Amino acid sequence: MKRIKKNSSTPVGYDLDQGVTQSMLCNFIKCRRAAALALNRWGSPAPRRATQFGSLFHELLQEHYRGAGKKLPPSPELTFKNVAQSWERKALEAGDKTEDIQGDLACAKALFPSYVDRWRKNDEKKRWVEVEQVFDFMFRHGHKRFQQRIRGKIDGIYEAKDGTIWILETKTASQINEETLSLALTFDFQCQFYVVAVEEKLQRKVSGILYNIIRKPSIGRGADKTSDAYVQLIKNDIASRPDFYFTRFELAFSSKQMARFRDELSLKLQDFQNWWLGDLPTYRNEFACQAKWNCEYLPVCACGGDPKQAGFKQSKTLFSELLEDA
Ligand code: SF4
Fold first, then answer.
1. Which atom of ligand 1 is least distant from the CA of 32?
2. Could you tell me the fold of the domain covering 49-253?
């Protein structure tokens, strides 16, 4: 899909052929300046603490569900031991503080075996089709056959006992408003994006998403996070209120909902392509700078827009989250 760009306000190191991910499209919709910086591969030099516990737990779930079909699946304790070592090394290399790393490891050590126990019966009924696999397809839509390459990665796809196909999507957070979350999830962009992706990949109807929420413990501030006593403190709290720590929602999407989503996805992708071509301008969206997580590029915009001046580094790889060991 080589085309001539009309101006240089949009990313120079990116071509539409490289595809669009869900997070890239979200970036574009929220703030075109953020999308241009991300597509030019600018990244913050500071480690992103807010997501580190999430990355550790995702690695644990990946190992756990990959072993689920085996005759002798590893115990949660062994899975934790295997994953924790390599994750700790990566976190140290990324420049995380030892205290933060130890806190995340202690939380996961307490939480992970309880998670496995909490959902054991429920999970035994699933047949895993894929765990943490990438997707990559050409989204085609409408009479004029609009098309755009779409890429991404999904936590897990499974077949339920009744033969229907579902997607597992896991979120880790310390603060969750379940009331607003369940409303927002009924038309959540990421969930429906994944349904489209899996339907394209498997060429099968997807019934919906199993939204798997794990609440990160936030107790025992000031405690020695390397101690067994700290892990036990968290375990006791989990045992006293497991439903607080582990929640699942089944989100079913009807064919009508998905048809509407595909129409809107096509419009959003057309805007993205027109922006990349220079038909739509790049401007900052000051309303998107501070949300649940601040925009990564806040230091860039705060110092006039030069990522180098803000100490940002340009990576060699775009979409590094899609690499095998990401
Ligand atoms: S800090 Fe605000 S204006 Fe700057 S890139 Fe981020 S969202 Fe856009």
1. 8
2. Lambda Exonuclease; Chain A (3.90.320)
Residues within a 6 A CB radius of ligand 1: 31, 33-34, 284-286, 288-289, 295, 297-298, 301
Q: Find the length of the chain.
A: 326
Q: What is the mean pLDDT of the chain?
A: 87
The atom number, within ligand 1, closest to the CA of 298 reads 1
Phi, psi of 201, rounded to the nearest 5 degrees: -70, -45
- Tens digit of each residue's pLDDT (9 = 90 or more) over 71-96: 777 899 999 999 999 999 888 887 88
CA of 183 to the centre of ligand 1 (A): 27
Residue nearest atom 3 of ligand 1, based on CA coordinates: 284
The gap between the terminal CA atoms of the chain, to the nearest Å, is 28
**What is the mean predicted confidence (pLDDT) over 112-134?**
93
What does the alpha-carbon distance between residue 266 and residue 154 come to, in Å, rounded to a whole number? 21
Distance 52 CA to ligand 1 centre (A): 22
Beta bridge partners of 169: 211
Per-residue model confidence as pLDDT tens digits over 233-291: 999 999 999 999 999 989 999 999 999 999 999 999 999 999 999 899 999 999 889 87
pTM of the model: 0.84
Domain residue ranges of the chain, discontinuous segments joined by +: 16-45+267-322, 49-253
Pair 137, 201: CB distance under 8 Å: yes
Of 10, 32, 33, 42, the residue with max ligand 1 atoms within 8 A of its CB, to mutate for a pocket test, comes to: 33
CA proximity to 297, closest of 51, 41, 5, 8? 41
